[in-house]
Predict the structure of YJEN3 protein.
Amino acid sequence: VPVSSRQAFPLPSLPRRQPTVLVVCGPAQNGAIGLVCARHLRIFDYEPTIFYPKRSPDPLYRDFTTQCEKMDIPFLSYLPTEVQLINDAYNAVVDAVLGAEAEAGEGREPCAAILATLKHIRIPIVSLDVPSG
């Protein structure tokens, strides 16, 4: 697809009456992209919630986190292991856990536990990159 024809648009499959999205962010670049995704979802009138357990010390990533906080996007302190709670609370999950920059060792905690939970989700999962998706 030529770059000029790419567009940002809300997911039409999510009902407007309950547009809740859980954005699960990893510690590296893909997690930062997840934070940016959450901001855009908020702009398009969705209700994102972020789970970002291993925050990066990188100043740019901290700025993205601050922007999300200033937009009143809530952050979860833990990811429920009871999958039904996630299925009931959200219409979709954005997987921003691991990206192409991920190294083999990054499959450790907390990422391994997150991915194990996401494997059992019944709601749609949108992966921002292939490795964790």
About this structure: The chain has a mean pLDDT of 81.
